[in-house]
Each structure stands twice: as C-alpha cells, then as structure tokens.
Amino acid sequence: xxxxxxxxxxxxxxxxxxxxxxxxxxxxxxxxxxxxxxxxxxxxxxxxxxxxxxxxxxxxxxxxxxxxxxxxxxxxxxxxxxxxxxxxxxxxxxxxxxxxxxxxxxxxxxxxxxxxxxxxxxxxxxxxxxxxxxxxxxxxxxxxxxxxxxxxxxxxxxxxxxxxxxxxxxxxxxxxxx
Length: 178
Known about the structure:
The chain is α+β, with helices and mostly antiparallel strands.
C-alpha cells in the first residue's frame, strides 16, 4: 500500500505542477492578449486620426488658389467693373441688360470671396501705405490730410495677405494764398 500512496502522492504533485504551469502560461497569454488588444485599439485610433488629418488637408488644398491666378482674374474683374461704369454712364443703355451684368459681376465677386479674396475698403479711410498706393493728391480744406478721396482701382486681400494695393488719390491741405 505504501507504493500506492507514493504513486498517488507523485501523481498529485505532478498534477499540481502541471496545473501551476498551465495557470502561469494562461496568465502570460492573457497579459499578451491584453497588450495586443491595447496596441490594436491604439493603431485603430491612429488610423482614424490620420484619415481625419488627410480629409482636413484635402479640404484646405481645395481652398487654395494660386495668387498668380487670382491676379489674372482681377484683371477680368477690373475690366468688368469699367464696362459697368461706362454702361451706367450712357443714357442709351438697356436697363435690364445692365442689371444682368451687375448680377454677373456680383456673382463673380462672391465666388472669388469664397476662395479668400476680400476688397480693401479705401474710400474715406486714412491713407495706409500697407494697403493703398497713392497716385494722385487733391487739395482740400474740408477733409483731414491723408484721407483717401478717390479710388482709381480696388485693392484686394487674399486670405488676409495683401494681393494688390488700392490705387488712390489722397487729400492734402489746401494752402490759402492771399
């Protein structure tokens, strides 16, 4: 019987040892699984962030218009504006046609505005060499000196940066001779 007990004790110890090893392996596998799952979640989050970043960059690139193209379009806008002024000055002009051209002009300005083009408001403003280019002076007694009194050509900003200065006439003090 002693041999049976010894065999039984040996089997029990072997079972405990195997059970202990299996539990250690199971714990190690659970730790590895948790680590891999955590890495998977992080990689998924990184991928989502990357996709959002790419989408954001695509949207930003779609809004970018080269300044050279905008300069060329401003020449067309200037010609359009001049034609509208000349047509409005003529009494023989067809009122409906003039209104149609004004609507097209406004639509053209609105479309350029969506790409970041903004008109510089010059009339009546204090002369600012950052936004205005003085090409004439006008002597006056009723306006403060260096006030924009006439705008020959509109100036524009493109996304907050000067694209073209406004061409203006500026007031100077009239000296009274007597």
